[in-house]
Amino acid sequence: MDHFGYRGSDLYAEDVSINEIAERFGTPCFVYSKATLIRHFHAYADAIADIPHLVCYGMKANSNLAVLELLAKEGAGFDIVSIGELERVIQAGANPHKIVFSGVGKQAHEMQRALEVGIHCFNIESLAELDQLNSVATKIGITAPVSLRINPDVDPKTHPYISTGLKDNKFGIAHNNTLQAYKYAQSLKGLRVIGIDCHIGSQLTETGPLLEALDKLLELIELLNAEGIVIKHIDLGGGLGVTYQDETPPHPAEYLAAVKSRLAGRNLKLILEPGRSIAANAGIFITRTILIKTNQEQNFAIVDGAMNDLIRPALYGAWQRIIPVSTTDKEGQIEALFDVVGPICESGDFFGKNRLLKIAAGDLLAVRSSGAYGFVMASNYNSRPRAPEILVDGKEIYLIRERESLESLWALEHRVNK
Ligand SMILES: *Cc1c(COP(=O)(O)O)cnc(C)c1O
Q1: Which residue's alpha carbon is nearest to atom 10 within ligand 1?
Q2: From CA 89, how far away is CA 83, in angstroms rounded?
Q3: How far, in Å, CA of 331 to CA of 374, rounded?
Q4: pTM (two decimals)
Q5: Rounded to an integer, what distance in angstroms lies between the CA atom of residue 373 and that of residue 203?
Q6: Among 107, 132, 199, 227, which residue's CB has the most CB atoms within a 10 Å radius?
């Protein structure tokens, strides 16, 4: 459930009209709902409130400071993948002890900083990385808490680009090498083994693969215990899907009930790293139709947003719902199947194809489910300033990131003959 919907003929975010936001801040822009973000976070946190747990928001999904701040205030921890994310989330007021650090290519300076601020755990993905972390930790005299990311070789049945738990991809330590890897980790003086983790993919629409991965990890924990290696927490990663079109992903409570029953009687803290399922449907992308172009083959709504602002349709062929911001009939509107496309010189620059819309030039459209992997994946391609981000809280409107200025586009560049 989210807090976007029509009041009469106008689309609202909570108690604010989207028309009003577009008027005030221009288009394109992203609009987030605070109540939705908080609700989605609590769908996780409340479901596991009765067991030791930590919900580490996968912040790569949407890392605006205001978003991080409000989740930190709700008690969230964070899953980070770079020093940029570490510094950003500290800026936002996060508790470093609730941070886990994921990623296949952490660099020594990133490890050092994370050790200095005292993060909860490093999710390690290779033996080489164990060596590197050990040498950084030994050098600065701080023991590093580690978990090993195991690749359980489970097919998450999602898009290949966001599928990460099969044995032929770059992520994690192969299931068969688990014991050997943990023994090696134990032998390194700079490290302290505390957990086990996995993350098999994103936009999963069934619990089967997630629970299969959990079962594999629980078996491994027994194996490790028998060897005297004590695992204190199990981190199941993120990956729960959302409804973009007609998917029916499990509710976090349903997934977590199954997880809890498997954890019963074991002395394990549960860590989760949800990103998309917290942020995706807490945001929409607003764009204005520049003009309508029709030829014999197809109708195009050419809009002022583009693939540089929201790349999911272009990158993954992702389907996101496109709806009018106002459903009031206007003169000059055409009702037809439209390809909704941006102004960039690439055929991949589209938000949706063959969408039934009744629109005219100047009309506003909202691309739903744009709160995750939206703004964070934006670029300046075609020298387009990145769009502003706006957070709505009831009747209140906060500009949480300004539209980039044209000057900022070249501010870091240097001419040679000047
Ligand atoms: C991307 C990622 C997440 C978040 O995934 P969602 O599908 O957005 O929930 C969590 N953990 C790791 C290691 C990731 O790479």
Answers
A1: 238
A2: 10
A3: 33
A4: 0.96
A5: 12
A6: 199
The predicted-structure confidence for 162-221, as pLDDT tens digits, reads as follows 777 677 777 899 999 999 999 999 999 999 999 999 999 999 999 999 999 999 999 999
Main-chain phi, psi angles of 242, to 5 degrees: -130, 170
CB 79 within 8 A of CB 198: no
Ligand 1 midpoint to CA 102 (Å): 9
Maximum distance among all alpha carbons in the chain?
A: 75
- Distance between CA 249 and CA 204 in Å, rounded? 7
101 CA → ligand 1 middle, Å:
11
Instruction: List residues with catalytic annotation.
Output: 345
Closest to 342 (Cα-Cα) out of 4, 28, 8:
28
Pocket test for ligand 1, best of 40, 57, 199, 312 (most atoms within 8 A of CB): 199
Euclidean distance between CA atoms 229 and 374, whole angstroms: 41
**C-alpha 367: how far from chain center:** 17
pLDDT of residue 94: 98
CB 256 within 8 A of CB 234: no
Name all domains of the chain by residue range, CATH numbers in brackets. 4-32+280-410 (2.40.37.10), 34-276 (3.20.20.10)
Name residue, tokens 């032929």. 168
CB count in 10 Å sphere of residue 328: 9
| Integer Cα distance of 22 and 17 in angstroms | 9
